[in-house]
Amino acid sequence: MTSLAGQVALITGASSGIGEAIAWKFAEAGTKLVLIARRSERLSSLKSQLTEKFNAQVETVTLDMQDTPKLKQLPSALPDGFQQVDILVNNAGLALGKSGLQGTSLEDIETMVNTNVLAASLLVRLFCNGMLERNRGHIINISSIAAKQRYPGGGIYCGTKSYIDAFTEAIRHDFVNSQVKVTAVSPGAVQTEFSNVRYKGDDAAANATYEGMQPLLAADIADQVMYAATRPANVQIGEIVSFATTQA
Ligand code: NDP
């Protein structure tokens, strides 16, 4: 088993849901953390809790994944001791819109593509060469079951997650014969703020997403990420797909 103690993990979208749950698991394992999101107060609160509970070393970066110029400066903006990222978790992401493509605003399309696709791709490019030079690293991309089970109204979101699946699979070939691993984690329905974001404050619509279902929890997905990240050197987990047991 690979120990995560002392490794540096950068987690995007760490202010809630799956990203926050991954931060808790990694902190417990002794990983040094760079936590990124827009809501700085959430990140500060999480940092305090992780420091108090695990004596974790945590840096927070307030960053909008859509701010491409700032994103490109991220590696050099990281403080000493956190610049050599060993584990990159591309988790920040969202779906927007409740009607079909014809009812989806151009702005929402840009937001989904920039956040789910462009930012994730740039971050891999920004950190992969350092990982390859050190012959140590793991890129973990949070995809979705929506990449496989495409649904009406999901044109852009399903498209972005299908990109993540294809991207993850393809770059694994680029890093073959190195100790830089690549994993896609593809959850089914997880109870987080995802649906509240999607339906922009329409809580009834958000809650209806999980009606009649006992959804996955963010901690379940964090367990999967931990599993992938702690395999021995000869084992690379390509993808983990999970569903809520009550999910069709
Ligand atoms: P949440 O809404 O709880 O978390 C999303 C995270 O992404 C937040 O921390 C948010 O931070 C961050 N984020 C969103 N947009 C931006 C941005 N422009 N810049 C920086 N950070 C951003 O949802 P989940 O935890 O469920 O989602 C995490 C990932 O899991 C996503 O990629 C999602 O597609 C995927 N997923 C979720 C499923 C589900 O059912 N919940 C199922 C399958 C996949 P902030 O707002 O502070 O910036």
TrEMBL record:
Keywords: Oxidoreductase. GO terms for molecular function: oxidoreductase activity, acting on the CH-OH group of donors, NAD or NADP as acceptor. It holds the Pfam family adh_short. It comes from the Eukaryota. The keyword Oxidoreductase applies. Belongs to the short-chain dehydrogenases/reductases (SDR) family. PANTHER family: ALCOHOL DEHYDROGENASE. This is Uncharacterized protein.
